[in-house]
Fold:
Amino acid sequence: MRSPSVDIGRPIPAPFAPPASSVPTLDFERLRKKIATYLRPEDVGRIENAYYFSRNAHQGQYRTSGEPYITHPVAVTELVAEWHLDSQALMAALLHDVMEDTSVTKEELTERFGKQTAELVDGLSKLDKIEFRSQEEAQAENFRKMLLAMASDLRVILIKLADRLHNMRTLDYVRPAKRRRIATETLEIYAPIANRLGLNQLYRELQELSFMHKHPMRYQVLSKAVKAARGNRRELVGKVLTALEGRLPQWGISAEIQGREKHIYGIYRKMVEKHLTFSQVLDIYGFRVIVPDVPSCYLTVGALHALYKPVPGKFKDYIAIPKANGYQSLHTTLIGPYGTPVEVQVRTRQMHHVAESGVASHWLYKDDESSLSELAQKTHSWLQSLIELQSASAEATEFLEHVKIDLFPSEVYVFTPQGHILSLQRGSTPVDFAYAVHTDIGNRCVACRVNGELVPLRSELRNGDQVEIITAAHAGPNPAWLSYVRTGKARAQIRHFLKTAQQDEAVTLGERLLNQALRPHGLTLGQISTFAWDRFLRDRGVRARREVFADLGLGKRLPVIVARRLAEAQDMESGRPDVIKPKPAGAVLIRGSEGAAVQLARCCHPIPGDEIIAAVRKGQGLEVHVHDCPAVSRLRGDRGRWIDVGWEPVDDRLFEVAIRVVTIDNRGVLAKVASAISEAEANILNVTMDSEQAPYTVLTFNIEVADRKHLARVIRHVRVQPAVTRVSRQKAEIKR
Structure:
């Protein structure tokens, strides 16, 4: 929604004197009283200037509810003031929509309110001037901008969360489809961010409001059920409360006891995850015990366990091992009156501050520097990880996907060999652990020990595991890791490494393919002039030669067409005749170890010594086949889609090939054939067994050999075994 043009071009004099007709709204008067309790008078005056500026800028704009638009920025600022944020943040909250919804520019905000305030507003503004291919891409790019602005200044996300909370509180006036979309977005992105920053009250309210607007009927049904249960269980709550108030003083514990009711969304999620009915969710009520110090926390748990029997496995110590967002408490579940489970949280007053306000405690409770500095350090580490994700993610949608993965609560705590604790997402593997320690450790990971024993890299880590990563200098990520890693950082860094490696390999291969394609034109790559290259790049809108080589190596461009265009451009410069005598192109030599840019076909398993041919597959580079592979017959009709290739001499590489062995079904025949293969110095990768008509059995071995001569030696060793009737190389089969 855009406002009509407004006259806001002249700087506001300082101190600002509003026109006589200008009267602050009642909402702003309430805000002014709130901020005056902790800000200096001159700061309050600057915030009042921002209010009048914002009100003028939004003149003529209205919310969907019919209220003047200025009521929204004022409400957001009031929410931010509850965290005692500074004057710059409060001014940015009042101005957070002026760049997006009016003609005000960042330069103007800088001139009037200072650079930091303008930067905060810019971080909060959407990228509405840029055209995107889809709504999803636009949304992802906006989140990327916001999260990266948050990484440099945490106040950005605090203002944004307050903005979202007020929008969710007033969502009733929005049409149902849009309401559900905004509720889903809040549940998937904003609520988890609030949780990750430790803003517990905000997190719960965003969840409740999202659930209410996304599933209104379910919310109403559960809300009525909770109200009914509240009356039925009042006696239970009263009994537990009386028991706690009587027992704790007997142990010399001075405590504040609070009863609390589980949120409706929490009950709903428990019902869905555990497939329960509402009547089966017994722990709707819980208790919070706030004590003076840490020793009292553990003493309180002892008193509670003496009063009611604890449920085994339900005690959690988040004081010794805090959550990633700084949350600390002791949790225990007790069997209360009538056999009903009762959850109790025990914490100190300082822990309670952090649990309720998270990173906002930095502004609210500056007297608690010890716990807040630790929380600030954890938050800083997470924000730095966002910047790492950004550098490793090529597209905004990919970045958003990785951030979403990391936003869900971390519940697995593991130890490094030095005894440091790392918090990871449940289901994480040693590969996730390696990337959490350092990107280079992850990229060079080859094996791991968990609790001193070697385990596969795909193993799931458990609470308390001690993990040691074994690295190798020349190792690299395996694409298969993407199928089981859980953390966003690991996924982003693996993809980034593979893309970079593939790009480099594709460039090298593309140069060789183009050089081969230029030979029939009597040219080599080194003879193509700068003029010819510049003309080719300009005509096709390409920025650099490297992009052309990469496209050739990945099969996105055909070498014969690029070579023809370059030859034509070269002819125009040199004045050569268009028709030249063709020369043989020759074959491109490959080693079979080029990586992602050159793949050996799985259908026929080519090895050195075979006559080979390569298909150019779009986006995947070259796929090398044996000359008589049935798959090749389908490619020969399109000359531009396949090229002649040959083997470059190689001594240090083994190649996979399959052999088919028909044997008489005798005891120990598999062991004898495997021994013969081993004696011929070949590695066995796997073996399958098929029974034909008795007494014959077919064994198919996938083995590694150096070349055709090595394969022939293997076949000779196998053929002399008494039980073997026939042995041959496995032929390719094309599925129809």
In short: The two ends are 57 Å apart (CA to CA). Confidence is low (pLDDT under 50) at residues 1-24, 127-134, 577-584. The first helix runs from residue 26 to 35. Residues 19 and 52 are 10 Å apart (CA to CA).
